[in-house]
Amino acid sequence: MEFDTLIIGSGAGGLSAAICLARKGQKVLVLEQHNVPGGWCHSFYINGQRFSPGVHYLGQLGKDQSTGKLYKGLGIANDLVFFEMNTSGYEHCRIGVESVDIPAGYDEMYRVLSERFPEEKKGLKKYLTLIKNVSSQLGAISEMNGFMDHLTIPWKTRHLGKYGLFSLKRVIDWHIKNPLLKKVLNIQCGDHGLPPGKACFPYHAAVMDHYSNGGFYPMGGGAAIVKAMTKAVKKHGGQIQTSKNVKRILLSGDKKKKAIGVELADGERIYAKRIISNTDPGKTFLGLVGADNLSPKLFKQLSNTKYSCTSLMLFLTVNMDVSKAGMDSGNIWLMADRDPDEIYHEQMRPDLDSYDEFNSLFISCSTLKDPTSYDGTNHTIEVITLIGHEAFDIFKSEGESHSVEYFALKERLTEKLLDGLERVLPDVRNHIVQKELGTPLTNMFYLDSTNGCVYGTEKNFWQIGAFSFKPESEIENLYLCGASILANGVAGATYSGVQTAAKILGCEQADLLIPEPDQQLRVYDAEDDSQYPEWLQKKISQKKTKGLNHGIQENTID
Q1: Of the residues 454, 486, 504, the one at which a domain ends
Q2: Which of 56, 71, 137, 201 has its CA 20 to 30 A from that of 427?
Q3: Last residue of a domain, one of 212, 240, 264
Q4: Are 300 and 313 in the same domain?
């Protein structure tokens, strides 16, 4: 059987492309090397406790906002439920001894921050307005159609053009003088993986604008998004196969190469009219296509391509009242009161034992973000820090049988992360039920990401926008999608799949996102259960009852 489109990788981009193409009548097959679909959006369980390594919050899910429209347009909104995180502080910035909360909404953000930093009122107003203008102009470019729209580009994107080649650090220095306020406004650099001195201002503006109306978390974790998307793929006749490791992309032709299918690790060959790769460009072209089949220009681009930093992710289950200890559904960004660029470069060093503590942590409690996941006793917490992959390069050759040295390093790093967490939850070590540390090698094994990178290609000046990899490649009938093509994050990767599908179908992205009238996204307040419908209250009650019974059984066994 020959497929119309074969998609390598079942991340958000691959699945959104599959939905769009299958809805148009194409025979679509999605192949995933892991044993579950979803890529970074997948969830996993440790002794019944769920963790979602790549989904910590989404933005723009309020009424008539972009991510909500995306899910309605894909026809999956009815299968999704989101909880809105603490609107008065969806980001808690703990910088040194100072605590500053970022609330939802530009107006509220300005009010709160200008009260805290009254001397910065004028500059803050200008800066937030600039963030809105630049991000809206980025969106305007993708929506432009036809001759007249392109004639107006200089006027519609004047702020983008003016600030397009400046770093975040340079632009914010023009508007803000207070060092603490700068750090607060730069805190979301962690969402794209570059410090202010290296980050492209328009890209950071787009990230900040994405979360400007607050943070939202899916009921059921990242797996709920995957479940909704895979359901839609299958509804329209598409197929998804897991544990299918693609060895190479099959080509025909001598001078003009053409993708005709794939060969799996077990030797099986599957043919298709076109291929979409949802894996990193380097793995696609150098690994699956082969350097000998590339033009010198593409080979040079790949040779110069940098990938994002990687991470350490500590997954914890604790049997303590974290709400009483001061946590809520908002994220906690814990940073030393130091120059963010210095902290970044320190943590990118290969010797992670050369400094006593991690000076930049992201702390998230998913059982507070998703009340249906709380069993009444145990909370799940994720503690994340960004690092360079070189720290684990010496272990790459070990395969699945890791050395004593690898596990010893994991243990030391776990303790260092717990030291940081104790600044938020002082007694947490006495309440740990289970713990597991994910490393760059974990990312490579389960997600097949280059060097364990967490954001695809590095989002520097020369690897985004006009300089990024495009949906259509130089190999005929070979296309790309994912975080390296358009933008990182769940929404960015999902939109990339729609963009690629539109390229294949010869239509506009908007043509593929026309919502059906019955599609409605349900959003509830994570902090206030008074408005929860009966079915949701029942679901929460059943989870706690099940957790209590499980606890009684465990105590009896002990």
Answers
A1: 454
A2: 56
A3: 212
A4: no
Which tokens sit at 444? 């490579």
List 547's β-bridge partners, or say none.
none
Shared domain for 298 and 322, answered yes or no, is: no
Q: Residue holding tokens 């097949």?
A: 448
H, E, C per residue of 459-502:
CCHHHCHHHCCCCECCCECEEECCCCCCCCHHHHHHHHHHHHHH
Sign of CA dihedral 287, 288, 294, 298: negative
pLDDT digits (tens, 9 = 90+) for 42-82: 999 999 999 999 999 999 998 889 999 999 999 999 999 99
| Residue 412 domain boundaries | 309-454
* CA pair distance 270, 314, nearest whole angstrom: 39
Instruction: Tell which residue, 276, 288, 279, 227, has the closest CA to residue 29.
Output: 276
If you compute the radius of gyration of the chain from its CA atoms, what whole number of angstroms results? 23
Residue type, 113: L
Mapped onto helix, strand or coil, the DSSP state of residue 55 is: coil
d(CA 188, CA 424): 19
Residues 161, 153: Cα–Cα separation, whole Å: 10
Given a contact cutoff of 8 angstroms between Cβ atoms, the answer to whether 114 and 121 are in contact is yes
The H-assigned helical ranges of 236-295 are 281-282
Cα(145)–Cα(508) distance, integer angstroms = 9
322 and 257 in one domain? no
Closest CA to 511 of 236, 143, 148, 231: 143
| Paired tokens of 488 | 């990182």
Instruction: Give the span between the Cα atoms of 97 and 93, in whole angstroms.
Output: 10
- Supply the pLDDT for residue 138: 72
> The whole model's pTM is what?
0.94
Is residue 352 a part of any domain in this protein?
A: yes
CA 473 to each of CA 9, 278, 301, 482: distance values in angstroms, whole numbers, following the listed order: 17, 13, 13, 14
For the record, the structure tokens of 381 come out as 């917490």
pLDDT at residue 483 in the model: 95
Identify the sign of the CA torsion 489, 495, 498, 503: negative
Is 466:296 a contact under the CB 8 Å cutoff?
no
Residue with tokens 């983008």: 160
Task: Give the residue ranges of the chain where pLDDT is below 50.
Answer: 140-141, 143-156, 551-558
Buried b (16+ CB within 10 A) or exposed e, 347-382: bbeeebeeeeebbbbbbbbbbbbbbbbbbebbbbbb
**Other residues' Cβ atoms within 10 Å of the Cβ of residue 37:** 24
Instruction: Name every residue whose Cβ is closer than 8 Å to that of residue 142 and which is 6 or more positions away in sequence.
Output: 509
Q: What is the pLDDT of residue 550?
A: 60
